[in-house]
Amino acid sequence: MLDGPDPELTFDALVLEHLRPETRVLEAGCGHGPDAARFGSGCAQWAAYDRQPELLALAQDNAPAAEFHLWDGKGEVPQELRGPFDLIVSRRGPTSVINHLNAVAAPDARFVYVGPRLDVPGVPERLGGVGWALLGEWRVSVRAWVPTWTDWQTRCECMGETASRETWNAHAGTRGMPYHEERYVVLAGLESALG
Ligand SMILES: C[S@@+](CC[C@H](N)C(=O)[O-])C[C@H]1O[C@@H](n2cnc3c(N)ncnc32)[C@H](O)[C@@H]1O
């Protein structure tokens, strides 16, 4: 339960702002395909990859019109993921996609990313390293409540964090435990293509 707006709404707004009927989208780390299901019908192509085959099977069921590919972001980009794509997106997916932007992006493409904390190490540096400029950065922190220890464990697992029983015991009350949902949202474009 959040005490303010969902910190991922900025990512949603950026995706929607860049989505046109002719837009070709690549999604990195699509999981079970919630974004392909939600946004995929509003564009010309939604191609996505993930390294977990069982999630890709769910994604294909959830978003039958999208294309899903098994890839871990390592080595050469597979032919079917080379696009060119107009919009490359990732919701808490692998930042390694940044290394491949120039292999997959159309010249005037945009990259929209939301990461799971206020700073995701290396994102601005990696973008600069491949010649992409930060057009916008948003750091959002919203107080939230997690009702039970089991919920806290699940959330920590999802976010790649370790749940601490000591923290829970020290801070949990009748409403559960207060904490902050934090996100880092980025919009970027190829520097040489910007006016
Ligand atoms: C936190 S989940 C988010 C999934 C989805 N974007 C969503 O919003 O539900 C991160 C996803 O990225 C995938 N992932 C992490 N590292 C990856 C990599 N190097 N290559 C491909 N997928 C990766 C995971 O398998 C997982 O499905």
Question: How would you describe this structure to a colleague?
Answer:
There is one protein chain. This protein has 195 residues and is an alpha/beta fold. It has a single domain, classed as 3-Layer(aba) Sandwich (Rossmann fold), CATH 3.40.50.150. Helices cover 28% and strands 32% of the residues. It is built from seven helices and seven strands. It has a seven-stranded mixed beta sheet, sandwiched between helices. β1, α2 and β2 form a beta-alpha-beta unit. The longest helix has 10 residues. It is globular and about 50 Å long. The site of S-adenosylmethionine has 16 residues, from β2.
Outline the secondary-structure elements.
Elements: H1 9-18, E1 24-28, H2 34-39, E2 45-50, H3 53-62, E3 67-70, E4 85-91, H4 101-104, E5 105-115, H5 123-129, E6 132-146, H6 149-158, H7 165-171, E7 177-190
Parallel strand pairs: 1-2, 1-4, 2-3, 4-5
Antiparallel strand pairs: 5-7, 6-7
The chain binds S-adenosylmethionine.
S-adenosylmethionine binds at residues 29-31, 34, 49-52, 55, 72-73, 91-94, 96.
Tally of structural domains: 1
Count of alpha and pi helical runs: 7
Bound molecules: S-adenosylmethionine
Q: How far is it from the N-terminal to the C-terminal residue, by CA?
A: 42 Å
Percent helix among the residues?
Answer: 25-40%
Beta-strand fraction estimate: 25-35%
CATH architecture label: 3-Layer(aba) Sandwich
CATH 4th-level superfamily: Vaccinia Virus protein VP39
Give the low-confidence spans. none
Per the CATH scheme, the topology name is Rossmann fold
Coarse shape: globular
Order of helices and strands: HEHEHEEHEHEHHE
- Based on DSSP secondary structure assignment, what is the total number of beta strands? 7
Calculate Rg over CA atoms.
18 Å
